[in-house]
Amino acid sequence: MQPIFLSINDTAKALGVGRTSIYGLLRSGRLEAVKLGRRTLVKVESIRRLIETA
Questions:
Q1: Is 51 helix (H, G, I), strand (E, B) or coil?
Q2: What's the gap between Cα 15 and its chain centre?
């Protein structure tokens, strides 16, 4: 089963960038995330879209 969401750290590792870059991509709307309690989880589908458009 594929994950639907990744943590900020896992997203940064997957894309090979730092956490600050991930937060910048979230602010700009290029990545989508949800808040679950205190955690911010990034939608895997939005990561795929970002990679395809790069």
A1: helix
A2: 9
CATH of 5-53, one of 1.10.10.10, 3.30.980.10, 3.40.50.720, 3.30.230.10: 1.10.10.10
Tens digits of per-residue pLDDT, 1-54? 999 999 999 999 999 999 999 999 999 999 999 999 999 999 999 999 999 998
Q: Write the secondary structure of the chain as one string of H (helix), E (strand) and C (coil).
A: CCCCEEEHHHHHHHHCCCHHHHHHHHHHCCCCEEEECCEEEEEHHHHHHHHHHC
